Amino acid sequence: MKAKRVQLQSLRTEFETLRMKISESVIDFFARTMKIANKMRIHGEKMEDVTIVEKILPSMTPKFNFVVCSIEESKDINNLSIDELQSSLLVHEQKVTKQEKRSKY
Questions:
Q1: Is the pLDDT of residue 100 over 90?
Q2: CA 89 to chain CA mean position, Å
Q3: Which top-level group of life is the source organism from (predicted)?
Q4: Which of 8, 83, 88, 94 is deepest in the core (most CB within 10 A)?
Q5: With 80 as the cut, is the pLDDT of residue 48 above it?
Q6: Does residue 78 carry a pLDDT above 90?
Q7: Contact predicate 48/88, CB 8 Å
Q8: What's the pLDDT band for 105 if we cut at 50, 70, 90?
Q9: To 10 degrees, what angle do helices 26-42 and 2-16 make?
Q10: Contacts for 44-53 with beta carbons within 8 Å, 24 or more apart?
């Protein structure tokens, strides 16, 4: 039982300090976040979707600042699903990637 508690504490720390890496894609960041969240759930943590959404939004890289602000202002975070959030951020990521490719030419 103690080992399980120690493991959960380690996962909590990992979740709390989680940040998107500059070179990381939205898909990869969500996968990494969900992997930790699901491990926490397995160890008995009551991890609700809203907690994950509230963690992801401020953990995005600066290129997502505009869309994060927009999501926070226009959507009810308590009712925003992880899939909806991921879709919104993916659309933004694709636009940014297109603009970056265009500006290289």
A1: no
A2: 10
A3: Eukaryota
A4: 88
A5: yes
A6: yes
A7: no
A8: low
A9: 160
A10: 44/4, 44/8, 45/8, 45/11, 45/12, 49/81, 49/82, 50/77, 50/78, 50/80, 52/82, 53/77, 53/80, 53/81, 53/82, 53/85
